[in-house]
Amino acid sequence: MSDIGIQETRDLLRHGISSATDHVESVLGAIDKRNPELGAYVSVADGLALAEAAACDARIRELGPAAWRDRPLLGVTVSVKDLVQTKDLPTARGSLLRNRRPRVDAPAVERLRRAGAILVGKTATSEHGWSASTVSRVAPPTRNPWAPGLSSGGSSGGAAASVAAGLCSAALGTDGAGSIRIPAAFCGVVGFKPSYGRVPYVPAGAERLSHLGPIAGSVRDVRELAAILAGPHRDDPDSALASLHPPRDPSVLRIGWLEFPGTAAEVRRVSERVCPVLAAQGHRVELMPVPFPDPSPALVDILAAAEAAGCTPGDEDACDPGRLAVVRYGRTLGGADLMRAEETRLALRRKLASVMECYELLAMATVPVEPFGVEAIAPPGYEDPGDLRWLSWSPATYPFNLTGQPAITLPVGFTASGLPVGVQLVGPVGMDDLVLAAAARLEADLGLLPGSPDQPTKGS
Q1: In this model, does residue 30 exceed pLDDT 70?
Q2: Residue 460 pLDDT more than 50?
Q3: Would you say residue 340 has pLDDT above 50?
Q4: Is 133 a catalytic residue?
Q5: Containing domain of residue 315, as a range?
Q6: Same domain as 69, residue 142
């Protein structure tokens, strides 16, 4: 994991151990050294980042500790996924079709910058984030920092790898079916998908699946970032509807532990070590069957229709072949097909709302498999998007995009081959604070805060 978290960076700068310029130069040096191998970044803002660092140093010299009073992220380095618009760097969306320079930052990027964060670059994604891997035609695939021959997951794979490899302090990712949580689990970092609409997504998507959220080395950092990113914005109507419930005591909870069929033995072994830890904290942990049918067919129809709407026939030659297969399927769908998919989504929301009346949290292995080959878009048996199963290998992530519930993944241990395993905590819609508080307590009791001596060394 990264050892340049938010609090660590603040302490270095506040106590004069390092300047912001020195810190940013160190991060840029690390990117220069490791990014050619990992492929986490598709563009790096060297000049801009150094100019912002110089401005940070000037502010610190002028104001001292008060420099952080209204800029809590002053001097903290962040990366932004290439699906999110940035005014100073191209936003290619992992595609050969676009390489735009938007006139304004997305609201989430603007909020990070207003808090003092320094944007060091844009991170890799699959084309339009269509797959849960980070393979595209615009750059080499993003490699897992723990094992460079394996996938970082996706589609926020560049974001998760940038944090895990110490190439920034935190990252901004997007999650439409697991795209924050899958790579965070594969790369051994923390990824949080807030309740739908809690962080404004601009430009908003009609599929109403996509969440913006933070990836960092600790729950503490993710919690701080989530608070900075949250709040309504006029350009995302759904953000005006998002609300948080009052804080709830996280000390004694009823937690349902879900084990999805097909979970690999090593993933099960490592993830289930969490259950006695939760029980020792005073929670009531109950093993339970997955309480809903697999909603993958509905998810595929909604996503495929959205992809078809965003791809014209003239775009096809430049389109990723896998995404093009999804687009072509989407063009076969009619209004009745989409209404049936939306009815499935509504039924799932009702079912999960009923379940969450009995359980304050659900817990499970985030991803049921270990990372697969770096060139693949999915594990063996799921690589062909034409058979419409290209996302169904991660059944614990996408249901909670359909319901809009808050979900966090945090690393809980390592397989026998030294690969990270993540556990996901899911709460009721609007109970983001409860999910984050429970995750922070679990992280502390597992002893997996950054710098923990029981972590294996990442591959180089």
Answers
A1: yes
A2: no
A3: yes
A4: no
A5: 296-342
A6: yes
